[in-house]
Amino acid sequence: MKKRFFVYGLIGWCVEVIWTGVGSFLQGDMTLKSQTSLWMFFVYGLAVLLEPVHDRIRHWPVWMRGSVYTILIFAIEYTTGQILSLLGICPWDYTGARWAIQGMIRLDYAPAWFLASLLFEKFHDFLLHYFTFISQPEEDYS
Q1: Could you give the dihedral angle defined by the CA atoms of residues 48, 92, 15 and 19, in that order, rounded to the nearest 10 degrees?
Q2: Positive or negative torsion for Cα 75, 79, 80, 84
Q3: Where would I find the H helices in the chain?
Q4: 31-61 in b/e burial notation, b at 16+ Cβ within 10 A?
Q5: C-alpha count within 13 angstroms, C-beta hemisphere, residue 61
Q6: Which of 5, 8, 40, 51 could form a cystine bridge with 47, CB 3.0-4.6 A?
Q7: pTM: predicted TM-score of the whole model, two decimal places
Q8: Where do the structural domains in the chain lie, given as residue ranges?
Q9: Where are the alpha helices (DSSP H) in 27-109?
Q10: 90 pairs with which residues across the strands?
């Protein structure tokens, strides 16, 4: 689980860099500047919490699975945003965005999270199938 937390954190970082770089391009910035935060590694790593859900609902229709994941992702984003805000270190603030809820989540990102979550399913299965060192139980060093 720790290994997959690390992998999901890294993948999340990479996707965020691409997402913000594309956003720069769409705003006319040809330097394609991207940004993220070291804190986001831990937030994206929490995707590991979706694995048991994936295992239980994998037989459901796509629209249902994507909807469940999107709601869970919003819950994780909102919760981690609140915690990081209380600590004064939240790297995002959607205040002022049209579909924002308390500056923590943006409902207009639901389609992106829906698609990302379905890709996560495929990535999760890929990791477990092709990378045995990631799917093996953690060793107990105690």
Answers
A1: 150
A2: positive
A3: 2-26, 38-45, 51-57, 62-86, 110-130, 132-135
A4: eeeeebeeebbebbbbbbebbeebeeeeeee
A5: 2
A6: 8
A7: 0.85
A8: 2-135
A9: 38-45, 51-57, 62-86
A10: none
